[in-house]
From TrEMBL:
InterPro entries: BBE (IPR012951), FAD-bd_PCMH (IPR016166), FAD-bd_PCMH-like_sf (IPR036318), FAD-bd_PCMH_sub1 (IPR016167), FAD-bd_PCMH_sub2 (IPR016169), FAD-linked_Oxidoreductase (IPR050416), Oxid_FAD_bind_N (IPR006094), Oxy_OxRdtase_FAD_BS (IPR006093). Keywords: FAD, Flavoprotein, Oxidoreductase, Plasmid. This is FAD linked oxidase domain protein. Belongs to the oxygen-dependent FAD-linked oxidoreductase family. Its cofactor is FAD. One of its GO terms (molecular function) is FAD binding. The lineage of its organism: Bacteria, Pseudomonadati, Pseudomonadota, Alphaproteobacteria, Hyphomicrobiales.
Amino acid sequence: MNDMSLTNLQNGITMVSAAAIEAFAGRLRGRVLMATDAAYDEARTVWNGMIDRRPGLIVQCAGAADVVNAVRFAAENQLLLAVRGGGHNIAGNAVCDGGLVIDLTPMKSIRVDQTTKTAWVEPGATLAEVDMETQAFRLGLPTGINSTTGIAGLTLGGGFGWITRKFGLTIDNLLSADVVTANGELVRASPTEHRDLFWAIRGGGGNFGVVTAFEFRLHELGPEVLSGLVVHPFADAESVLQQYRQALENAPDELTCWVVMRQAPPLPFLPADWHGKEVVVLAMCHCGDLEAGEKAMAGLRAIGNPIADVVSPHPFAGWQQAFDPLLAPGARNYWKSHDFMELSDQAIGVLTEAIRKLPGPECEIFIGHVGGAAGRVAAEETAFPQRSSHFVMNVHGRWRDPDQDQVCIDWARHLFEAAKPYAAGTAYVNFMPEDEIDRVEAAYGANYGRLVEIKRRYDPLNLFRMNQNVRPIQERGAA
């Protein structure tokens, strides 16, 4: 092994001796990967195919002690540091060029306690793995809608999906967490220990440390939920969305209905002549009694003249994977997102006009349905402040050919700007691409000042900066 030139926190180069790297590796149960290792390329590859970064070192951690050692090594050498959970972040923050990556993917332990209805989950677990383990006991945790997502990044940013309206955000079900802070100390964050840190990690992202274990509250769920898709012709889009909005006005917390607008993929239940044509999809889930679900969904299923209605009881863990084919890893992705207090006629017009100008067959608009239990938590109770929104728009610019980069990015940006007058002005940090650093303060609103103070206390040198970054107070306004 030779001495290595590694990227430092000043975006310069630090020479680290071979002896220092070997000594560091010798303190680990896991392994250290370099560019010459066969497993390196797989370890640096993340969900978004636009991200192609080459870390100097990748530390695949086997446990909390490895994380402690890796954070200390990075801090001692002032190395640029990224932390990888599931590698699903749209901005690619799981990897960095030339620096050190703490790779948590080997840490996948999940331990469910049926008596207390809680679970301890390590940060390398995916949503699918959490669902499989918890559903074995007919318990569930509210998470996201793409099961290949990592539990760590999803939780730290907030976390919402099919059962959020009933049980709250993922962070609303976080009871405690073990966190390695920037000084290499392992602490417990909870309502009684490091309370400020516990507040900050519930929505504040990876700004404050590396979580090595999450303790979650679970809920009785399933094993089946009433769920499925109702697919409408795009020609009826404005009417469908207006009726959708009306049907949800008095929706019970158990009911969630998202909208997807895109060109129809070749789904087996759609007539072949609809494949590749623009459609409006109502994706719905009721997480309570099946008979009650039928009644709750009746208004939504009565809308218009659908092409297909495939709503029926499904295993919850299976329904959690329903959108995985649309969000598979490897494609090039660029997202833009808005929160909405209401889905106004003007907003609907903007959205439908954008679908008429789709730049590719995988580009799409998702409209997430939130509120319910998540909206009954005070904005200041957690770092995540967007509690009053009812809908979250996520524009998925998604394509394969690099030559399409600009046209697909421009489409997403144009839609974002056109929808801005009708939006709430807030944002979900997990949906923000790497060029939206300027939106971080707005995303946290009145909570941002407190986050800055906690950042200064726990990470004054901004070691944890590969994220939607909350800078320490002395760095505010810095480039």
